[in-house]
Specification:
By secondary structure, the chain is mainly alpha-helical. 72% of the residues lie in helices and 4% in strands.
């Protein structure tokens, strides 16, 4: 009985770890999914929105916490809207490869700009130190930061769902995601809808940055590279362009990461990511369009 209890406790611990890591991935993935769903653009510069929010937190170190958090959200939101207006709107009708190159160009430009301004080395800042401890529930250790990450993600999902289903602008965004040309013919303002999608992605990037900086205590010009890669993989696995697919892919990616970390012997454990992406490759072989069918990728903007 004791062994059975230990096994159950260990399984519950894996579930908590998966929920925490998957929730963090979901914050990153939703930002990319929102923009792709409307504009059919994979915004690889989304990682730089995370970076901008992170450096805002760094520069305002010592300020009251609510002001730091609000400033990070505002900075990422404004950066996202400016990114859409200055970089992507002028090439909106271009081919997919042009949009992709523009996305990478914006990403590299912002990374190098921040390297020139702040240097390439990571810089430390203290944020939400009270979340550094943990508590036990039925023998399962739950970090306060893990609980906060899960809560922030679920609240963000709930708020986004309410916005998309209850507000007129949200309904216009859903219509645009289904058929952009038809929505424009019916009077949906394209510029406002796309700008709103970028603004939402900026807010989600800020939430992700807060969780990341709290977890690591570090900011750097390349801090958004790994999150945006994980978000891209999660979107592909879940079904590109679907919010539910982005969330599902995020938790699957997290689940595989936690499982291989726990189950692999010590030697092969350093190759955990290779096993994770090998398993994801098998998923794509079985479901080439993702777990949920990806939305049509034809240009509609």
């Amino acid at each position: 009985m004791r062994k059975d209890g230990e096994v159950v406790t260990q399984i519950l611990q894996y579930v908590v770890d998966t929920l925490s890591l998957g929730s963090l991935y979901a914050l990153y993935s939703l930002g990319i999914a929102v923009v792709f769903g409307i504009a059919r653009l994979i915004n690889f510069a989304h990682g730089e929105l995370i970076m901008i929010a992170g450096f805002t937190l760094l520069l305002l170190d010592g300020w009251p916490l609510p002001l730091r958090l609000a400033a990070a959200c505002v900075a990422a939101l404004i950066a996202a809207v400016l990114m859409e207006r200055l970089a992507f709107r002028p090439v909106r009708g271009a081919k997919d490869d042009t949009l992709l190159i523009t996305s990478f160009a914006v990403s590299f430009f912002l990374q190098n700009l921040f390297i020139v301004m702040f240097g390439a080395l990571p810089q430390g800042t203290l944020l939400l130190p009270a979340l550094g401890s943990s508590f036990n529930v039925f023998g399962v250790s739950i970090g306060k930061l893990d609980a906060a990450t899960i809560m922030v993600t679920f609240l963000s999902l709930a708020a986004l769902t309410l916005f998309l289903t209850r507000s007129s602008l949200g309904i216009q965004m859903r219509a645009s995601a289904e058929n952009f040309r038809m929505a424009r013919c019916l009077g949906v303002p394209a510029n406002r809808v796309i700008a709103t999608a970028f603004a939402i992605s900026g807010l989600l990037a800020a939430f992700g940055a807060v969780m990341m900086v709290t977890r690591t205590g570090l900011t750097s010009p390349v801090m958004g590279v790994t999150p945006v890669f994980a978000a891209f993989v999660a979107n592909i696995i879940g079904g590109l362009g679907r919010l539910s697919g982005a969330v599902l892919g995020s938790y699957l990616l997290a689940g595989l990461t936690v499982a291989f970390q726990a189950l692999l012997p010590v030697g092969p454990r350093s190759y955990r990511d290779a096993f994770v992406f090998g398993a994801l490759l098998l998923v794509l072989v079985a479901r080439p369009n993702g777990l949920l069918r990806a939305v049509a990728t034809e240009q509609r903007v």
